[in-house]
Amino acid sequence: MEERKMQKPTESEPLLTVSSLVKYFPVKEGIFSKVVNQVRAVDGVSFSLNSGQTLGLVGESGCGKTTLARVLLKLIPATSGEIIFDGMNILQADSGQLRKHRRNMQLIFQDPFSSLNPRMRVGKIISEPLSHHNMGDSRERRKKAEELLEIVGLQKSDIWRYPHEFSGGQRQRIGIARSLVLNPKLIICDEPVSALDVSIQSQILNLLDNLQKEFNLTYIFIAHGLNVIRHMSDRVIVMYLGKIMEEATSDKIFASPLHPYTKALLTAIPVPNPRSIDFEATVEGDVPSPINPPSGCRFHTRCPEVMEICSKKEPGFTLIEGDHRVACHLFGE
Amino acid sequence: MTNNQKNQEVAPNFFRDFVVGGFKLMGRSRMMSIGFVLVLSMTILALLAPFISPYDPLEINPMRRLQSPSREHIMGTDEVGRDVFSRVLWGARISLLTGALVVVFSNIFGIIIGLVSGYYDKVDKVIMRLMDGLMAFPIMLLAIAMMAALGARLSNVIIALSIVFAPRVARVVRGVVLTVRESAYVEAAIVVGAPSWKIIFIHILPNCLDPIIVQSSFMFAQAVLAEAALSFLGAGIPPWLPSWGNIMTGGRLYISVAPWMTIYPGIAIIICVLGLNLFGDGLRDLADPRLRGVI
Q: Is the predicted ipTM greater than 0.90, yes or no?
């Protein structure tokens, strides 16, 4: 892991730049579908990502991680903001440009059971993306599918089988093969292991790790727990209710977390010795509704270190040691 | 194939998947095999009608009118002395043809309409209100109205019934499309840059097949019955042509003295409908690779 980080190219131009991205879902009511409210799923998220890096995205369920991924892939339109990927503004691209652009940005799904078409043979599932972009004839596509199956640890002959003949881990490997077939630059992994057995999880994570080295991939890695993130990421973004709470390199997040929410997430990692957990830092209760997020700092309702200012003023980002930013009044001024 | 059998060579093969798979499925499901035998024998009898029917179905013989079933006329004769057995055999051709064509046409239109309105939200509201309007009329009323407008001919029966059934197909297809298009594999297809028509026809349509097949089997049965009803009411094909409905129409006046005129075509309809429903369920399983039973 350490070696890998050292070798990474540090390019000046980031592969992906997201600035003040917002996604609100309207809440409609009545026969005229009047918009009565907004679900603030992603509320002003900005970050950038360099080529070859892995960005970990972590937060409780309902914090907007998956929505963010879907907006980045333009599966759902953004409300406002800007996404610059590889020099192109995705949100303003027309449908033709967008379809070409999709080659470069791929997704690995959370649920390996619903993400593969049950009526399609595995070879077709993997090679089909090539046909959308007129790449190769049918024989070349089949060869490519066979190649990729072997790369992800399955057998060539599996191209003729149907998804239901595979286990969850194997299906996830098929999903990974499909995401690789177009030689993308960026792969968004939306909780790729959370539906799998623990023993299979590490295999898939190692596979993703190896693929990154082999194909110089950039990952955005979404997870709801920090233990998986730790294994994979170079940088980590902690999200809560649609906002970024803290961003730092993976080492810093784990060695010296600043935001009380990050600390709470860290205590949620299962450890061999439960007595070592600092229970002061844990949070209780559920995430508040994103329809009416709490005033001021969104975390103040559950924060163990809440102050008076927290419910009144929303904290801005404080930069600490150059690339460690945190949105918390504890570190303001 | 021979050398590679150890190597799990399972290349796709239409014949093995659907024909052998179908027989395997029937081996396991007695109901499907009964349905298959019934449908197959009906079809064969209908096709062979010119060769096996003992009399001309249109030949009038007043000397032999209203005879009860006997060795010469195993289903008896009708009020003008035509052989009921021959008429039922020839009637199978018209009734089954009507059923099959109505299923084909209403599926073609219904599936296209359903796919489009299920996939594109904007046209959905307009198209579906139109379909609702068509469906607000009772099946028979709409069919009779259309027959009155078009004129009593077999082709018009098929057109009218297709128009009546298409909105019902469309509604079922749209319902399935609405669920299937939210599934992760459709999202995956969007992510890899599939154009809309490919998403609709490659990813969504195959996963809508279950309800379409099931619906087709009972729509076939309904079309046979609707044709019978139309002809029975006099809005279908001309009365001298034999269809199961027409034969029964002719028989209704004589039901107390010559019940065979009504009973035998009725039995034919029952057997046909039963066979189709049993077979349709099996077909649905065959279309699904998870249930096909061949690896």
A: no
